[in-house]
């Protein structure tokens, strides 16, 4: 009889894991802690070991996306219950979907223990309406030595704004290189894309919402014009950036109260959205 492979969401901070998820972790022979798809300022290997009393093995992209991952399946096929635990919700990362499919094809039963994702945290922190979220996109570090400067974030923003939708920018993590993109870095890259395309998507009127360490005790939410956010210190990562589309009265009031943005800045931005950017 095979064991169970459980995908356990840990949420965004301490105490977010569900009782069902915690119960499963405590029944496992080993916990594989995904350390590359997301980051938390409160959840780490030591915390998990203290919480569960189990052996916790940190694993990176190389482990989960190469032949090394078969170690997980081998344990399950021997009858062990094994967990892959990650920050947020386990299936926000496509890597985990692929692992689940592969395990099921091998005859290994899988179970899912959901928790709060970054999307839940963002909606709670900002007051934005979920049905007005546009396509989500990641701003990644360019690699100029290889001529790599992806501009998809700019194109997604342009499309979302044309429909009045909010754009969530997830910021690149290269934890193996000890790199985690900050809000000022993300704004600098978006500004560079605007200079390249010159379509008026990013302007002096553009406002944003900068979030740091969402869902933790040190969460930061600041809203304002991008040029103002670019000069702010948001502290330790992870960071997230949002550029809102059209705002209804409740969203507008929420940003003023929760993000401390001036009403004049919102008015100027909403007026700008009524104008057609170049090449649209």
Write structural notes for this entry.
This protein folds into two domains: 4-116, Tetrapyrrole methylase, N-terminal domain (Cobalt-precorrin-4 Transmethylase, domain 1), CATH 3.40.1010; 119-274, Methyltransferase, Cobalt-precorrin-4 Transmethylase, Domain 2 (2-Layer Sandwich), CATH 3.30.950. The chain contains eleven helices and twelve strands. The protein has helices spanning 19-27, 45-52, 61-64, 70-77, 94-105, 118-126, 152-162, 183-197, 226-229, 249-258, 263-274, and strands spanning 4-9, 30-34, 56-59, 82-86, 109-113, 137-139, 167-171, 173-174, 179-180, 207-212, 220-225, 239-243. It has a five-stranded parallel sheet, with helices on both faces. The longest helix is centred in the C-terminal third of the chain and has 15 residues, at 183-197. The protein is elongated, with a radius of gyration of 21 Å.
Question: What brief labels describe this structure?
Answer:
five-stranded mixed sheet, Cobalt-precorrin-4 Transmethylase, domain 1, 280 residues, alpha/beta, 19% strand, Methyltransferase, Cobalt-precorrin-4 Transmethylase, Domain 2
Topology-level CATH name of the largest domain:
Methyltransferase, Cobalt-precorrin-4 Transmethylase, Domain 2
The ordered H/E elements are EHEHEHHEHEHEHEEEHEEHEHH
CATH superfamily of the largest domain: Tetrapyrrole methylase, C-terminal domain
Name of the level-1 CATH class of the largest domain = Alpha Beta
> What share of residues is helical?
25-40%
By secondary-structure content and strand pairing, the structural class works out as alpha/beta
Query: What is the residue-averaged pLDDT?
Result: 94
What is the correct CATH architecture of the largest domain? 2-Layer Sandwich
Proportion of strand residues: 15-25%
